[in-house]
Every structure is written in structure tokens, then in C-alpha cells.
Amino acid sequence: MSIVNEMCLDFYACPENEAFARLAISAFILPLNPTLEEMGDVKTAVSEAVTNAIVHGYGMHGGTIRMRATLNSDNMLTVDIIDNGCGIADVEKAREPFFTTAPDSERSGMGFTVMESFMDSVEVHSHLHCGTSVRMCKRFAAASVPVAKRA
């Protein structure tokens, strides 16, 4: 399988950039002619992962988030959300519904269950004091994916 399209974007970890990340991934998948449901699924999953980096990874104190997206010839979209924040001590515990590292806020969890419900797969890798990487994959219908020609 070969890469049909790819992007990499670094942005500041502030609440305003959660919407920016949603718009960027929307623009990236728009040529796939996704359904409204597919578009909403990807945007929501990206939003959850970016919000985690802002709130839990960096504790609302800023940092850099990297969003990398690839589309391969097997019609698979892969989105990586990467931060260099505090990391997650227990990834399995963090993946439980309603678990949060910010109990004093109005958050209802870290959103991994939400990401898993909208994407085909979600992988989380984290190291304390080094950051977290969330990889989400979603397969699009073959008829939706145009084959780009590389120069």
C-alpha cells in the first residue's frame, strides 16, 4: 500500500486551536467526498485527542501539538495527535469512561471511548514526562477515495 496524500501540522496547545485542528482535518479529508457522518466522526475524534493534549498533556499551560495525517491506497486514513506533555501514568486506566486527570474541571473523561466509537482503531502510547501519541485510523469506502497523481 502506498501513501496517496499526507500532511503534518504543528500548532500551539491552546483551546482556540482545537477548532483549528478540526478545520484542518476536515480540509484534508474533503477530497475523499466523505459523508456528513464520516466527516463528523473524524472531526470529533481529532477534537477529543487535541483537547486531551491541551488539558491533560500540558495542563492548559501551552506546548506544541503535532497532527499528522496520511491516506493510503487502501483507503485508510491515519491521524496521529502527538504532544510532549506530562504523559499518562496508566493508559488502560485513562481509557476508562469518565476517568480524568482534571477532576476539578467540568470534564467527563479523556474521550478515548468517544474516539473509539468514531474511528476503526485507536492506539495510545505514552511515557511519563515525555508525552503521548494517539493514532486513530478510519477506512473510507473505495468509491470515496480519489487516486492522486504525484508529479
Characterise the protein shown here.
This is Anti-sigma F factor. Its EC number is 2.7.11.1. It holds the Pfam family HATPase_c_2. There is one protein chain. With about 150 residues, the protein is an alpha+beta fold. It is built from four helices and five strands. It has helices at about 15-30, 35-55, 90-95, 110-120, and strands spanning about 5-10, 65-70, 75-85, 120-125, 130-140. Strands 1-2-3-5-4 form a five-stranded antiparallel sheet, with helices on one face. The longest helix has 22 residues, at about 35-55.
Instruction: Give the overall shape, derived from the CA principal axes.
Output: globular
Structural class, by secondary structure, is alpha+beta
Tally of DSSP β-strands: 5
Which ranges are low-confidence, i.e. pLDDT below 50, for 5 or more consecutive residues?
A: none
Q: What percentage of the residues does DSSP assign to strands (E)?
A: 25-35%
Task: Please give the share of residues in helix.
Answer: 25-40%
Secondary structure tally, helices: 4
Helix-strand pattern: EHHEEHHEE
Question: Concise description?
Answer:
The protein is of the alpha+beta class and 151 residues long. It has four helices and five strands; from the N terminus they run E-H-H-E-E-H-H-E-E. 31% of the residues lie in helices and 28% in strands.
Name some characteristics of this structure.
151 residues, alpha+beta, 4 helices, 5 strands, ATP-binding, serine/threonine-protein kinase, protein serine/threonine kinase activity, transferase, nucleotide-binding
Could you outline the blueprint of secondary structure elements for this entry?
Elements: E1 3-12, H1 16-29, H2 36-57, E2 64-72, E3 76-83, H3 91-94, H4 112-118, E4 121-127, E5 131-139
Antiparallel strand pairs: 1-2, 2-3, 3-5, 4-5
Helix pairs in contact: 1-2, 2-4
